[in-house]
């Protein structure tokens, strides 16, 4: 393309420079030729006239008498024969190339004009010359007049007699039209040669100047082509930089434009690379954040589900504790009744010593009471088993709560600032779980002791029942048996007192545990609500992270498009 442009522009530039020069040269050569021809014609006529006047002056000085012609046609000036002037005319024609003729009247008398080698004496002038010179007394000049049958450039002047008024003849000078044209052609050829030489010199100068201009413009065009193709790796234009004209300024400006484009595009490509890296980093960070938010959301959802489950379990435990409290109230009631019965048994046993029959009756009643006691103690033992089971459940709940609190603390630590409040709640839950665990352990220990005491009481009641049966079988042993019975009743009363005391303690612990579980239930409900709110916040944060991720992807796409656009430009 550049070569085509180079050829086309060079041809146009040459045409632009040479065509006006050629036209001006042709015009100047034509005008000069025409002017030269006109000048040559004028100068030739003037020279011929001057020669004619000079010849007339010369013959006027030969004699002061009039001119005349004898019967032989010889012309005289006074008495002087002018025939010798033919030789003078021949010599003048030989030296100057001009013909000379002296007319007397309208006839040639002395002449250097020859026809077929003979002197044209006796021939006449053309009628136009006769009318103007002889009759009109005026000069006659012509660029083309027949002279003895030959086309000539002529000049005729009148020849006067000595009075200066009478025209008696004519003086003629002229040159052959062929010689005149030959001289004219030679002169024109010389002028044309000079014009051709001048045109050649001017053309050479124009070609040299246009070549330098073309080279400079081609260099600038090459730089512009490189800019258009986005190639900034090639050299700048060097031709024409030293010029002080507009072309030099254009080349320098084109080079400066290339440098600025190179710097600008380089900076843009560098920044686009940074933008692409930043977009990749933003996309990766958004992806990691989205994954973290998903994990956190799942963890919070699990915590929320755990908190809900915990709240339900705590509510179930609270219901179990309420049942335990009711059972303990029943146990206390039974223990009180047992205590009353043992007191009555003690009174009755002491009265047996005085009244055997009353003892027998009382023994029967004691057996019945012991049966009731056995049943009550069985109920106490079952209640103790229930309390122990509930304490184990509470212990398990406390362990699960502690585990959930630990998981919540871990997830809150992962959540950072957003999970700080949740971590505090998880700590409170852990503390309550520890308290519940300690209370459950205490209850379990008390129930274990109560169980042992109850088992001992049941065993003693059984022994008392056997003793009463033996007393019924034999009255001989009744006194000793009654004594043993009194001791057993006293011990039973003491054990019942211990049972009542432990039952009261268990009831107090159950009441405290009920309060703790109520607080734990409220905290669990608050934890569930907080977990739901945290889950909603995390969902919102996940949406924001997803938006950021989308913006990162969009930014990466924009950076990729910019990279594709600027990839067109090649820089070092």
Structure, described:
The chain is α+β, with helices and mostly antiparallel strands. Among the domains are: 39-182, 2-Layer Sandwich (Beta-Lactamase), CATH 3.30.450.20; 299-534, Orthogonal Bundle (Helix Hairpins). It has helices spanning 2-60, 85-96, 127-135, 177-229, 246-354, 356-415, 420-473, 478-566; strands at 67-69, 75-77, 80-81, 99-104, 107-111, 114-115, 118-119, 140-147, 150-160, 167-176. A 5-stranded antiparallel sheet has the order 5-4-10-9-8, with helices on both faces. It has a 3-stranded antiparallel sheet with strand order 1-2-3, with no helix packed on it. β8 (140-147) and β9 form a beta hairpin.
The count of helical stretches stands at: 8
CATH class of one domain: Mainly Alpha
The radius of gyration computed from the alpha-carbon positions, rounded to a whole number of angstroms, is 77 Å
Q: What proportion of the residues form beta strands (DSSP E)?
A: 5-15%
Fill in the CATH topology of one domain: Helix Hairpins
CATH A-level architecture of one domain: Orthogonal Bundle
Count of distinct strands: 10
């Amino acid at each position: 393309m550049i070569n085509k442009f180079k050829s086309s522009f060079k041809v146009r530039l040459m045409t632009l420079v040479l065509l006006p020069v050629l036209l001006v040269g042709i015009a100047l050569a034509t005008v000069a030729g025409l002017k030269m021809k006109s000048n040559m014609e004028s100068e030739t006529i003037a020279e011929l006239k001057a020669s004619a006047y000079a010849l007339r002056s010369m013959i006027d000085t030969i004699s002061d008498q009039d001119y005349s012609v004898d019967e032989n046609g010889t012309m005289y000036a006074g008495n002087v024969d002018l025939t010798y002037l033919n030789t003078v005319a021949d010599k003048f024609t030989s030296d100057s190339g001009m013909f000379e003729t002296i007319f007397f009247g309208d006839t040639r008398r002395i002449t250097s004009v020859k026809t077929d080698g003979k002197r044209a004496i006796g021939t006449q002038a053309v009628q136009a010359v006769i009318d103007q010179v002889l009759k009109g007394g005026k000069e006659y000049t012509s660029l083309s007049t027949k002279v003895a049958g030959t086309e000539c450039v002529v000049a005729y002047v009148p020849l006067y007699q000595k009075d200066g008024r009478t025209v008696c003849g004519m003086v003629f000078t002229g040159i052959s039209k062929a010689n005149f044209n030959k001289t004219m052609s030679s002169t024109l050829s010389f002028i044309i040669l000079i014009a051709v030489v001048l045109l050649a010199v001017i053309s050479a100068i124009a070609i040299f100047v246009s070549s330098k201009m073309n080279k400079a413009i081609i260099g600038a065009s090459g730089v512009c082509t490189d800019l258009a193709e986005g190639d900034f790796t090639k050299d700048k234009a060097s031709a024409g930089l030293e010029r002080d004209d507009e072309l030099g300024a254009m080349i320098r400006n084109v080079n400066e434009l290339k440098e600025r484009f190179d710097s600008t595009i380089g900076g843009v490509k560098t920044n686009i690379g940074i933008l692409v890296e930043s977009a990749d980093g933003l996309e990766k960070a958004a992806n990691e954040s989205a994954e973290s938010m998903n994990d956190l959301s799942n963890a919070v959802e699990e915590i929320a589900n755990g908190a809900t489950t915990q709240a339900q379990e705590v509510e179930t435990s609270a219901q179990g504790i309420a049942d335990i409290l009711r059972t303990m109230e029943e146990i206390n009631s039974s223990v009180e009744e047992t205590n009353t019965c043992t007191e009555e048994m003690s009174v009755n046993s002491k009265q047996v010593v005085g009244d055997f029959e009353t003892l027998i009756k009382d023994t029967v009643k004691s057996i019945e009471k012991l049966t009731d006691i056995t049943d009550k103690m069985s109920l106490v033992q079952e209640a103790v088993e229930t309390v122990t089971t509930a304490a184990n459940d509470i212990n398990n709940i406390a362990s699960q709560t502690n585990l959930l609190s630990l998981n919540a603390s871990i997830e809150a630590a992962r959540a950072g600032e957003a999970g700080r409040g949740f971590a505090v709640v998880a700590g409170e839950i852990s503390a309550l779980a520890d308290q519940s665990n300690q209370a459950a352990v205490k209850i379990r220990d008390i129930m274990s002791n109560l169980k042992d005491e109850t088992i001992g009481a049941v065993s003693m009641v059984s022994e008392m029942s056997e003793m009463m049966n033996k007393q019924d079988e034999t009255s001989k042993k009744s006194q000793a048996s009654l004594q043993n019975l009194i001791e057993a009743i006293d011990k039973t009363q003491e054990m019942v007192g211990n049972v009542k005391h432990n039952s009261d303690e268990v009831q107090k612990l159950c009441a405290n545990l009920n309060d703790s579980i109520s607080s734990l239930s409220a905290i669990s409900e608050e934890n569930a609500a907080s977990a739901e709110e945290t889950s909603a916040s995390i969902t919102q944060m996940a949406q924001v992270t997803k938006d950021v991720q989308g913006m990162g992807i969009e930014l990466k796409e924009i950076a990729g498009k910019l990279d594709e656009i600027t990839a067109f430009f090649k820089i070092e």
